[in-house]
Every structure is written in structure tokens, then in C-alpha cells.
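Hello,

Our lab assistant flagged a job as stuck in the queue for most of the afternoon. It eventually completed. Since we weren't sure the result was trustworthy after the delay, we are filing this so someone can double-check. Below is the sequence as submitted and the structure that was eventually returned. Let us know if re-running is recommended.
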Amino acid sequence: MKAVVQRVKRARVKVEEKIVGEIEKGLLVFLGVHRDDGEKDAQFLINKVPYLRIFEDGEGKMNRNLKEVGGEILLISQFTLYGDCRRGLRPSFDQAAPPEEAEKWYEEVGKGWEKEGIKVERGVFGAFMEVEIHNQGPVTIILDSKERRNK
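-- returned structure --
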């Protein structure tokens, strides 16, 4: 799984001009699911994202995590994170999981964070979405569960 994690002051997502998810201070997480992903990949993100020390402490240093600041997560599915542009100009999405499989893991990750006591808002899986982001910093972290396994 790939996740693009952005620290936000606030964020929201619309589908057909209707707000379907909205958070205040927290993390916007764009999540892509690889066709070979499974439970270990989901657990990697469930265990990692809420504990990333990317929020400022009293001294202005990034020492606090999402749970410590009482933040929220806005989770957005994004199969295009597995777009391969090595050949030509049109991305290939062969590495992305089929929609049914991707949605299963997308929901699993969101539920995992909710079990951690975090408020999780979501976009609509597979929908054309308009995402409004108010980055704070900006701070953007890219996580790839496959890199964890290769170390």
C-alpha cells in the first residue's frame, strides 16, 4: 500500500458538490492499494500513520503525533498512486488492486484507525471527488508498505 500523508489545518471532500467528509486539524491520507497487498500492509499503515511525529510541540519541533494533538483523519482512495509512467505518457494502472479488493483494504485501514480511537472521515470509494486541502507546513510524507518489507 502507498499512502500520501499530509498534515492539514482542515480538509474536506465533495462528491457531486456535496460534502461527504470533513476534518479539522489532522491528516489527509491518500491511499492506494497494490494488487499484492494484504493484512501486513494494512497493519503497517494502521500502526504507523497515527504515530508519525509530524505535529509541532511547544518548541516548534515536529515531536507530536496525531493522537497527542487530538487530530482527525480524512481518508481518500487513490488508485492513481500506482500509476506507472515508465513507458510512454499514459500511466498504466496494472499494479493497482481491482476495485473490490482495494475497497476491502481501504475500509480495513479506516476501521483500524477508528479502533485506535481516531475520528476518520472518508471520501466515496471509486467516485470522482473534489478534495479541498489546507496544508499546514506544508508537511507531506509518503509511505510504502513494500519498502518496509524490503529492509
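-- support follow-up --
The delay was a queue issue, not a problem with the job. The result is valid. The chain has one domain: 2-149. The chain is about 25% helix and 35% strand.
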